Amino acid sequence: MHIRTATLNGVATVEIARPEKKNALTLEMYQAMADALNAAREDDAVRAVLLAGQPGIFTSGNDIEDFVQRRPGDGSDAMDSPVMRFMRALLECDKPVVAAVTGAAIGIGATLLLHCDFVYVSDEARLAMPFVSLGLVPEFASSLLVPQLMGARRAAERLLLGDPFTPEQAVECGIANAVLPAAEVLRHARRIAERFNTLPPGAVREAKRLMCAGQRERIVATIRAEGERFAARLRSPEAIEAFSAFFQKRAPDFGKF
Ligand code: COA
C-alpha cells in the first residue's frame, strides 16, 4: 500500500510512500488518507497527526495518469470523489496536523499545507502550485488562501505563473513554520506532534475549531467552486495538451489555443 499508517506515542502518522512515482497521489491513496485522518480523529489515543513523505519528495501532487484515465466526476459526483473526501477529512480534523515536508511538494502537495497546523520544510524542498501550467485552476481553497497569505501580487507569481518557491519563501509568507536540514525535518515534526501528549486534548480541539471557524464557510464554498471548475478544466484541450507533454517529456505547446 502506498499510504502507510501507524500510531505511536499519541501520534498517528500518515506516510505517503510511492517514491517510484515521486509520491504522486492516486484515487486509492486519497481515500486511504481520508480514512486515516477520520480514524485519527475518532481515536482517543491519538493527540496529533503527522503527515510525511519520503526522503527528497513529499508529494508530486495528483497522479497525472489519473487526471487522464479516472477524472473526478467520471461516473460519480465530483464533490464526492476520493480527493474531495480527503480534503474534507483534513479540513474537519480537529486534532493538530503536523506536516513534515521532506522534499518537493507540488500541486495538492503544496495546497494541503495551507490546511495543516504546523509545517516543517526540508532545506532541499521546493513548493509549487503549477495548476495553470497544466491547463487547470487552483484547488483546496488556494485561490482564496494564497492571496490572503502573501498578497495578490506574489500570489499571482505562484498561482498564475506557477513559479516554485523555496523553503525560506514558504516560511516568509507564513505557509511553513521553519526550514530544517533534510535529515532533521521528520524528527522535528514528530517532536512537535508529541508535545500534544502533555496538553489538554479537549482544549486543544476547541481552540483549533475556533481558529478555523472565522472563514470556514468561505473556505468550503471556495473548494466547491474550484472543484467544479477543476473538473471541467480536466477535459479542456489545454489540459490534455499539458498532460500529453508531461508523459512525452516535452514542453507543452499552448500557442495553438
Ligand atoms: N503523476 C504521475 N506520475 C508522476 C508524477 C505525477 N504527478 N510525478 C512524477 N511522476 C512519475 C514520472 O512520470 C516518472 O515516471 P516514469 O519513471 O515511469 O517515467 C517518475 O514519476 C519519476 O518522475 P521524474 O519526472 O522522472 O522525476 P524528477 O526527479 O525528474 O522530477 C518532479 C520530479 C516531481 C519535479 C516531476 O516528476 C514533476 O514535475 N512531476 C509532476 C508534478 C505536477 O505537475 N503535479 C501535478 C500538479 S496538479
Mind explaining what this structure looks like?
The chain has 257 residues and is an alpha/beta fold. It has a domain at 3-181: 2-enoyl-CoA Hydratase, Chain A, domain 1. Helix content is 44%, strand content 16%. It contains 11 helices and 9 strands. The strands form 2 sheets. It has a 6-stranded mixed β-sheet with strand order 1-2-3-5-7-9, sandwiched between helices. The chain has a 3-stranded parallel β-sheet with strand order 4-6-8. The chain is globular, with a radius of gyration of 18 Å. The structure holds coenzyme A. Coenzyme A binds at residues 21-22, 24, 60-65, 104, 106-107, 130-131, 134.
Radius of gyration: 18 Å
The CATH first-level class of the domain at 3-181 comes to Alpha Beta
Unreliable runs: none
Secondary-structure-derived class? alpha/beta
Bound molecules: coenzyme A
Q: What form results from the Cα inertia axes? A: globular
The fold-level CATH name of the domain at 3-181 is: 2-enoyl-CoA Hydratase, Chain A, domain 1
Distance between the termini: 40 Å
Helix content: 40-55%
Q: In CATH, what is the homologous superfamily of the domain at 3-181?
A: 2-enoyl-CoA Hydratase, Chain A, domain 1
- Strand order in space, largest sheet: 1-2-3-5-7-9
